Amino acid sequence: MKHLLYLTLTVLSISNMNAQNPEQPIITGEFTDSVTHSAWFNDWQNLHGETFIAEVSLKELRSKNLKDISVVVILGTWCEDSQVHVPALLDCFKGTEVPIKIIGVNREKECPFKPKECKNWDIEFVPTIKILKSNVEIGRIVESPSKSLEEDLIEIIDKN
Question: Is the entire prediction scored with pTM above 0.90?
């Protein structure tokens, strides 16, 4: 029994380590083009397989009035959900004029570069994708979409 408990705890510890990917660099602060075009950032989709985005939903999303829409993404470079959903989000808005700001946080969901501002973001899980209209938050996707990324985005934009 003692061995079974030890084995279970060991497996859980390894699973938790893999989910938070300790080998991934932890980058905090606002991402620049050099970061979003870096080899490790571009490899995120390759590591986790291609994210399927329905072409019909993409056309619907891109046909919306996105004039006053902007997006702020708070992610953890160490977080598997960030590695899967952030490249897909960038694909969703490819070819649009929607500004996307990407901000990296540490494992405590803190951003050392703006600690006071970070506390006001109410970040519990990453990625947190904040959708803004005229610089006012109208919705957010936290950790994983409830339906699909593009359907959740359409729903948020349509409500407002």
Answer: no
